[in-house]
Amino acid sequence: MSEELDLGLGVLDHQLVDSEGRRCGNVDDLELEGVREGSPRVVAILVGPPVWRGRGWLGRVASTFARETVHIPWEEVEKIDSAVHLKKTARELRLGGGDDRARRWVEWIPGS
């Protein structure tokens, strides 16, 4: 992925879709390198409540009880359109665990 992209509008908070078409979370933050040198580049997508600390009091509370942040190397991004499409499955990238745990609580709801 070498073309220019507005990270705020084109990536942050976008849905993540794995190689099997499964929705598996959102882009919560990005890890950058080279900012001080004046040539920033994205090295990873960060997913999980620990990166919500800067999102108000609810984010701080959620980040307090969170388990871990998932780092997805930028090289695992296949393409970006209305979602961020990944080259691997959610399981391979350690994504979607929260959805898997919540499924047992909502699967009885019609249309869920």
What this model shows, in words?
The N and C termini lie far apart (34 Å). 25% of the residues lie in helices and 28% in strands. It is of the alpha+beta class and 112 residues long. It has helices at 7-10, 56-65, 90-93, 97-106; strands spanning 15-17, 23-26, 29-33, 41-47, 70-73, 77-80, 83-86. Strand 6 and strand 7 (83-86) form a beta hairpin. A four-stranded mixed sheet has the order 2-1-7-6, with no helix packed on it. The protein has a three-stranded antiparallel sheet with strand order 3-4-5, with no helix packed on it. The protein is built from four helices and seven strands; from the N terminus they run αββββαβββαα.
Annotation keywords:
alpha+beta, 4-stranded mixed β-sheet, 28% strand, globular
Task: Set out the fold topology.
Elements: H1 7-10, E1 15-17, E2 23-26, E3 29-33, E4 41-47, H2 56-65, E5 70-73, E6 77-80, E7 83-86, H3 90-93, H4 97-106
Parallel strand pairs: 1-7
Antiparallel strand pairs: 1-2, 3-4, 4-5, 6-7
Summarize the structure.
The chain has helices spanning 7-10, 56-65, 90-93, 97-106, and strands spanning 15-17, 23-26, 29-33, 41-47, 70-73, 77-80, 83-86.
